[in-house]
Specification:
The structure holds two protein chains of two kinds. Chain A folds into two domains: 76 residues; 239 residues, Orthogonal Bundle (MetI-like fold). Chain A is mainly alpha-helical. Chain B is an alpha+beta fold. Chain B is built from 17 helices and 19 strands. In chain B, a hairpin with a 3-residue loop joins strand 8 and strand 9. Chain B is globular and about 70 Å long. The chains are: A mainly alpha, B alpha+beta. Chains A and B meet through helix 2, helix 3, helix 5, helix 9 and helix 11 of A and helix 1, helix 3, helix 6, strand 8 and strand 10 of B.
């Protein structure tokens, strides 16, 4: 069964990635702008026009569209992601370092959002219709509806006014002292044994992570509140209470278990939304990341980089969906994946 | 159990956050600055300078790069000479003496005991290798600015420190050798490092672009992320440290790519950026009040408005002149450039060889209307293409639109990313329907020759001649001037002036403004020495001449 699941996932992943590549390339193909101009730079002098022609040939842009698409696709599936037209660096290098920077924020955001959301959601469910529950409901409504980029700008201004330095990923004074291993300053500062640099990197990551966490947090609270409220009225739960088991213990031991599968599935999808959130928030905080890299690649028709970044993001989605499925299966053995 | 874990996690995060709040360094207020007690031994802190630039680094192959990469190349590599057209002075770099032997031979004596970053010695062979690769790259692939060495037939190493340039035709080789692009000397070992089989092997370029380097400059690359930041470290073996004696030169230079002007401002105010190049100009007075300083750098960087001379109605000389008279010239510098610039004259910027004064139109709407009447045009719709994100161009476009409205001409402003602007400009040769009536291009030179600016309108230049202008007489004048530069420089300059008058009379292209670039910096930390800027090398800060004070 597990083998069938893995095979199904692999086939699905290949199809998704193929779809991403094909769709991206079609869009780039019909978009205004010639990728050869980006690749060739600013050629001057009598050979300038020839340089563009050479670039067109080098990139295969003189071939029919279906051949271009075939070549781009096969290259990607043979793990030759090529070179960014704008930055002249291997696409894989840029895509991975951008993803690492984004994941730094995203992982912390979800580490905050999920447990905190479950906690607050459980409280709201246990004390349903109380003032606290109503306050939580209102707060989550505001959080879901609030424009994160605006909150990000506001947060940054407030923190700057309070002399809390959160611009960029790490203080410049620490940057030269860290050995880059993973590309994550939080991890690399620990590897380099620099606690001060670690704290600095963490301080700069926390505000954007908190902002990214707002949406999943609010969503978790809502889901847990509603799902748990239903469970609290079920027979098994009321019987547990009648045996003298405390409400909290019963929630934790019995009711929450049945909520987690739903939560896992929804969180898998929410990560996709959060990636868009991160893209805008990391820009406000002067951080690197997938969103920033994409924003720099798209206007310049840097199709290898655009495809590379989108593929990396797709892989991240697939992984998050798979993890959600596995969590679902672990929590509820009846589920067939 | 799970609830307890969650609570512990929240508490732990809160503690870390609260702790970091107190330990995070921030820029102290001037009143909080204290003088270190002399009795306490001070550990020498690493001196770091952070320079924010507005655009991504487009490449760092010293033989192939022709754009923004200059801001890195200028610190990692050195040419044979530096030249400052403002003072008309050459400054020895890797060459200590140079001599024009005759019209077609130049001798350069190299600085002895100069080492490349890999430890190898600078030799005449390295000079030959560099120039031959740059020439070959250009001749075979059109890449880079190897065209500057077009006059060079051969480079002959006489011994380790003397090199003879044999020319095909007379050329001012001292000016060529001090070019901002394709004149940086790099070590021949790159062939070995990149496993290259020929001078134009792509593997060399890819080797450089991955962040590798082998120059003689005062800084080495330690981290290269062209989309976000470049970290440079002091090269202790640089020959010049003992000469310039700058104990406060930065040990580390971080070039940060911060595209948004507001973010540059935020970074500067928060202390994360020391020198910013792209602060909103309206914010500068406030920053000055806060104690920041501004260095107004003059580069030969101008904004040229080009008329499409192949499309109605801008194909009519009187119509173009009418537009030229309707441009609110007196508002360009104060409004569009917010005071950071000088009104353009001719096509060549002020201070650059070949610049000519008084070659600009005056704002005269009556004359503009008369000209339109003379050709029977009462109304027209024009497309104006500018580069998105260039606030100067955006403000100018609004000025022009408002002014032309008064003479019955409607302007559709189209702001596009740079590469699409270029495509629109080139369309004048291949797809006239797509080409706009008016387009604004920004330009800076490769080396100190007016030809660089005037070639923009050469009929052979189908990449940059966005006017679609074809005038064999004009081509002949500038080609002749270029060829005689090495023999009769004064006559060449006169020809360049004549060519600019032709362009002016026909109103083909107009230099709107020679821009001035305000570098806003934290004066508590940064001090610029003489030599930190050279107008020939646009946007390069020579950090060996910068002092980091804290």
């Amino acid at each position: 069964m597990l083998l069938a699941y893995v095979l199904k996932r692999v086939v699905l992943s290949i199809l998704i990635i193929f779809g991403v590549i094909a769709l991206s390339y079609v869009l780039i193909y019909i978009m205004p702008g010639n990728p050869a101009y980006t690749w060739v730079g600013k050629p001057k002098g009598p050979k300038a026009a020839e340089a563009i022609q050479i670039a067109v040939r080098e990139l295969g842009l003189d071939k029919p569209f279906y051949i271009q698409l075939y070549e781009v696709t096969t290259r990607f599936f043979s793990f030759n992601w090529g070179v960014s037209l704008r930055f002249k660096q291997p696409v894989a290098t840029i895509a991975i370092r951008s993803l690492v920077a984004t994941l730094e924020v995203l992982i912390i955001a979800y580490v905050i959002a999920i447990p905190l959301g479950i906690l607050i959601g459980s409280i709201a469910a246990l004390y349903r219709s109380s003032l606290g529950d109503k306050a939580i409901y209102t707060l989550t409504s505001i959080l879901i509806a609030s424009p994160r980029f605006w909150l990000a700008a506001l947060t940054l201004i407030i923190l700057q006014a309070l002399n809390v330095n959160v611009f960029g990923r790490i203080g410049v004074e620490y940057q030269p002292t860290i050995t880059i291993v993973t590309g994550s300053y939080i991890i690399d500062s620990l590897i380099s044994g620099r606690i001060d640099a670690f704290l600095d990197a963490l301080t700069r990551t926390l505000p954007p992570a908190l902002l990214v966490s707002l949406y999943p947090f609010a969503l978790v609270v809502r889901i847990v509140r509603i799902s748990l409220s239903e469970k609290l009225h079920e027979e098994y739960f009321r019987q547990a209470l009648s045996y003298g088991i405390s409400g909290w213990y019963a929630v934790k031991r019995y009711a929450l278990r049945s909520v987690i599968p739903v939560l896992a599935q929804i969180m898998g999808i929410t990560i996709a939304y959060s990636l868009v959130d991160v893209a805008t928030i990391e820009s406000v905080f002067g951080r690197e990341g997938v969103g920033i890299a994409l924003a720099k690649a798209i206007p310049y028709n840097d199709y290898p980089l655009i495809i590379g970044l989108l593929t990396v993001v797709s892989i991240a989605f697939i992984i998050s969906f798979t993890v959600a499925d596995i969590v679902h299966k672990l929590v509820d053995p009846r589920v067939r994946i | 159990m799970a609830i307890a874990t969650i609570i512990v996690l929240i508490v732990a995060i809160s503690i870390v956050f609260a702790y970091t709040y107190y330990i995070t360094p921030s820029r102290p207020l001037p009143s909080q600055l204290t003088t270190p007690t002399p009795t306490q031994p001070l550990e020498r802190k690493e001196k770091i300078a952070v320079y924010a630039y507005r655009d991504v680094i487009t490449g760092i192959d010293p033989g192939a790069e022709d754009d923004i990469g200059i801001i890195v190349l200028g610190l990692v590599y050195e040419p044979l000479l530096y030249y400052n057209p403002l003072t008309k002075e050459f400054k020895p770099a890797l060459a200590v003496e140079w001599l024009k032997v005759n019209d077609t031979a130049w001798l350069f004596k190299l600085r002895p005991n100069v080492r490349f970053h890999d430890g190898s010695l600078l030799t005449a062979d390295a000079v030959r290798f560099t120039i031959m690769r740059n020439k070959a790259l250009y001749n075979e692939k059109g890449v880079g600015c190897g065209w500057i060495w077009d006059s060079v037939e051969d480079v002959i190493p006489l011994n380790n420190t003397a090199v003879l340039f044999k020319l095909r035709y007379p050329a001012p080789l001292d000016l060529v050798a001090s070019a901002a692009y394709s004149a940086y000397i790099y070590c021949p070992n790159v062939m070995k490092y990149a496993n290259a089989s020929s001078l134009t092997d792509d593997s060399i370029r890819m080797w450089f672009e991955q962040g590798n380097y082998c120059g003689t400059g005062p800084y080495k690359i330690v981290s290269y992320k062209p989309e976000s930041e470049v970290i440079l470290k002091k090269f202790d073996e640089w020959w010049g440290w003992s000469i310039i004696d700058n104990q406060n030169a930065p040990d580390t230079v971080i070039i940060k790519i911060v595209e948004e002007p507001a973010q540059q401002e935020l970074g500067l105010v928060s202390g994360n950026i020391d020198i910013a190049t792209n602060i909103p100009k309206t914010s500068i007075p406030n920053l000055l009040r806060l104690g920041y300083k501004v260095y107004n750098a003059t580069f030969y960087y101008n904004f040229i408005l080009m008329f499409n001379v192949r499309k109605w109605p801008t194909n009519i000389t009187e119509f173009r002149k009418a537009i030229a008279y309707a441009i609110p010239w007196n508002d360009i510098v104060p409004v569009a450039f917010q005071g950071y610039g000088r009104l353009g004259s001719g096509l060549v910027p002020y201070g650059f060889p070949g610049h000519v004064e008084g070659l600009h139109y005056e704002y005269n709407l009556t004359k503009a209307k008369e000209l339109l009447k003379s050709i029977g045009i009462t109304d027209a719709k024009l497309e104006l293409v500018i580069t998105s994100g260039y606030e100067e161009e955006e403000r100018f476009a609004q000025l022009l639109k408002a002014s032309l409205q008064q003479i019955g001409i409607e302007v559709n402003i189209i702001a596009l990313p740079w590469e699409q602007v270029k495509e629109k400009g080139m369309a004048v040769w291949s797809n006239l329907e797509e080409a706009p009536h008016i387009i604004v291009n920004d330009w800076w030179p490769t080396y100190a020759t007016p030809y660089d600016f005037l070639y923009l309108l050469h009929s052979n230049n189908t990449v940059w001649n966005w006017s679609g202008y074809v005038n064999p007489d004009y081509d002949e004048i500038i080609d002749e001037a270029f060829v005689i530069e090495g023999r009769d420089y004064e006559k060449a300059l006169n020809l360049y002036v004549e060519a600019q008058k032709t362009i002016f009379d026909e109103a083909i292209a107009l230099n709107l403004c020679d821009s001035v670039h305000p570098f806003v910096y934290d004066s508590d930390k940064i001090r610029f020495r003489e030599g930190a800027f050279n107008p020939m090398y646009s946007f390069v800060i020579f950090f060996q001449y910068v002092e980091v004070l804290t």
